[in-house]
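User: Predict the complex.
Assistant: Input components as received:
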Amino acid sequence: MPQLIINGIIMGSIIVLGSIGLTLTYGILNFANFAHGDIMAAGAYLCLFFLGLNVPFVVAVILSMCITAGLGILIDWCIYRKLREKTSVVLLIASIGAALFLRNVVQLIFGPQLVYYSSEIQMAKKLPFGIRIKPDEIFIIAASFLLIIAVHLFLKRSRIGKAMRALSDNMQLAGVIGIETEKIIFWTWGLGCALAAAGGIFLGLEVQLRPMMGWDVLLPIFAAVILGGIGSPYGAMAGGMIIGISQEVSTAFINPAYKSVVSFMILILVLLIKPSGIFGKKERLA
Amino acid sequence: MSGILSYLITLGIMAGIFAILTLGLNLQWGFTGLFNVGIAGFFAIGAYATAFLTKGPSPEHLGGLGMPIFFGLLISAVVSGLIAFLIGLPTLKLKEDYLAIATLGIAESIRLIFTNEAWLGNGNRGIKDIPKPWAELSAAPYYNLLFLLIIFIIIVFIYFFIEKSIHSPWGRVLKAIREDELVTASVGKNVFRYKLESLVIGSMFMGLAGGLYSHYISFISPDVFHPMQFTFLVWVMLILGGSGNNLGAIAGAFLVWAIWSGSEFLTDLLARISTDPKVSGMITNIQSPLRIILISVILELVLLYRPDGIFGEKKIL
């Protein structure tokens, strides 16, 4: 069991990185971006590309995060920006199109097969309570932790971060007091997609890379966002950890193939019991 | 029968099955504003339900009751509607995108269950030899034409059914919900009940389409029902045809299916140009991603520049 919880924390870190961006764009732009999982996959494959050029791993991660941020901003600029006046559902359909586009471009360039970042076999370190953990996994947990602290400081201390939270809270009010919404939306995509890229890379490091990897994490990150409360980055952090740990612990009882069904079940439970999530504001119902 | 004609007939049958799906989605999205992204799931449920009921006994899967095909198709629709009912209960009172996420989740869960539970539907290997209607005729050259005729009759029936309902008081409430839920609720309509009815009826058509697919292809496996790709295709059909317009929905289905199959034809031709097996192998590898990229670009362009689709809805109150 302690081993499963450690695995859950690793998966949880990855899901948290994916869900922060999703919850911010969901809160601010008020649409569920179905392409977010495939943005994660795009980041992971960019990193593979840089590793192929013999760039050191950490540099490759940072480069991929920057380029994926640009990619997110570009997609917003080309498609979503022009649809913002329409209902949120039109944006949602557009995001499904973007998701399939990204996924198939990845498949076109890198092929459909499974790939690993490194062919080296890592020896797991033994820790107390019979826990075994690989150096890569320690890296994932540490790097995610650092990124989450950085996001926290950014949201709490910087002007842009504060404006982001204000926008996510109440768009009209934020506009009234003079926050430049388009500028903040730009930064939100950048931040969200950079984090998504990190999440995707860590997922590739922990499991493997394949064009469908973004699809595999889509339900878990949505479950994390809804569990935490849409628009709340801190909720996404808590939700991501809960989803990650529940997914891994569930493998002690049921077939591991059903991991995403577990997160889906949690999602349905949240919708039944407290649809606004842990940290979310209450939805106005029709 | 000549090659081209029989190719067109098979094209027509598949496009017709998609037209039934698109009509179901049009009822849900075009007229009620319900965002169903689980079309693949409802389709799969229908396909498996009739396979279990109508096939003879087999150790490879559940059921095998050898029932008549008509009965199997009926149950396909009913089971699909039941799943829609269950998924609608927790989500239809919430914001519209919760329904989207929940339907996507149910479609993926259904696919995972059929992939992993081999006792249920033979897992990834799928179910084969699903009976065809009037099987004794199936060797005849005009058999597919007969099948096309059945599909055509069903489409006409569903078309008039939806048209009739949409112009009834019930249909006007659906459209009112689509335009403004709050106003509809404030004039005393039970919004939740109408939404649930629309979701269930639309999903029943999707289940029926799944059943027809099952009997036409005679083989089903979980791979066919991949939630995003499959569902996406139906959405593109409706958006391109013009949501809120039943004829548009049907036209969209035929048009997109023609583009989809046509692109396969084109890459096949490309693959044949080169005799080098390495080059033609490469072309076959990029075939499926290229098609999806093409379709997603079409969708984004339609959304950006022609959001009402080719036909759009006639604005008559």
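Chain A has a mean pLDDT of 87.
Let me know if you want any component modeled separately.
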